[in-house]
Design a protein that fits this description.
The chain is α/β, with parallel strands linked by helices. The chain is built from 9 helices and 17 strands. Helix 8 links the parallel strand 13 and strand 14. The protein is globular.
């Protein structure tokens, strides 16, 4: 453990066979401690609504949904397979075709890899991608290995601390700004926390063209800060965690590499923070359970903050 570093990053901080990363810090004891934060029983929904017009990178592709059966034609299916429905019963459903990184979502460790000198890409814990990837995701590190997230959540309102509605496109948040915003709020980060960072960029959610042209984000130096604090997950109110344009030209999404590949710290994106920002709610129980999809690289989330 003491020998681990961002340069010497595998085996992981949590063992050579580990697949869950910093979620190892979620324990019965930590869950009970987080649950004790609940005083009012008020739930804040931190997820955006998914529809076919939401902002999403072309790499992931827009979600497609359509009504598969209506009540009117569904009755024909039921009559054929279940016998004639004499009590007026029918049912209808919706068929979904979406990326596992749609809307408010969490990234899994098989989502990002780092190219090595030998030409192979390595995933979390030094796993060679070509040895585990297939037509149906990956045989290791798939979403089915991710436990539910039940923890203490912390909001860091960086935009509010700097006195703006939103940070400018390409702005790279630095650790000293996180620390200063925390101090101004009277909030501290503890081991095992989920840290939500408010940039204000989520205000563009209903304007996909603006939202997808770029974003503020977490600067590269926030990686060591996260490891030092021993957090388990970041959440941001934009689509890619890192600033776009890049903090350093040609260095694409370094927080994705340092967190998902090396440190075992997950990323949540498109978190809807506006209500807790407006109410200045900086500490809460946070709960999310990703869809248990074998081999998947992420999952849409219904993300809840409870006070």
């Amino acid at each position: 453990m003491s020998e681990w570093s961002f340069e010497n990053w595998y085996p992981s901080r949590f063992g050579a066979d580990d697949q869950i990363g910093a979620f190892n810090l979620i324990t019965p004891e930590s869950i009970l401690k987080a649950v004790r934060l609940v005083r009012t029983g008020v739930i804040y929904d931190l997820s955006f609504v998914i529809d076919q017009d939401i902002p999403i990178p072309g790499f992931h592709g827009s979600p497609f949904t359509n009504t598969q059966y209506t009540l009117e034609n569904g009755v024909e299916w039921h009559n054929k397979r279940m016998g004639e429905m004499k009590n007026g019963y029918s049912a209808q459903n919706l068929r979904l075709s979406i990326s596992d990184h749609t809307g408010t979502h969490i990234d899994q460790f098989n989502h990002i890899g780092e190219l090595q000198p030998d030409g192979d890409y390595l995933l979390y814990n030094g796993i060679r991608n070509k040895e585990v990837v297939s037509t149906f995701g990956t045989s290791r590190l798939g979403l089915e290995t991710m436990p539910p997230m039940i923890a203490r959540g912390i909001l860091i309102d960086v935009a509010g601390f700097k006195g703006v509605d939103m940070l400018p496109m390409g702005y790279a948040i630095q650790p000293d700004e996180l620390d200063a915003a925390l101090a101004a709020q009277g909030t501290t980060v503890e081991e095992g926390d989920v840290v939500l960072v408010h940039t204000g960029w989520g205000k563009h959610w209903l304007d996909p063209d603006t939202m997808m042209q770029g974003e503020p984000g977490l600067g590269k130096a926030c990686g060591p800060w996260a490891v030092e604090k021993n957090i388990i997950c970041w959440g941001v109110d934009q689509f890619a965690t890192d600033p776009i344009p890049y903090e350093n030209p040609g260095e694409a999404l370094p927080m994705h590499i340092s967190m998902l590949v090396k440190a075992g710290i997950r990323l949540m994106e498109n978190v809807n923070m506006q209500e807790i920002v407006d109410r200045r709610i900086y500490e809460f129980l946070i709960v999310a359970a990703p869809l248990k999809i074998k081999g998947a690289t992420g999952s849409p989330l219904r993300l809840l903050a409870i006070t």
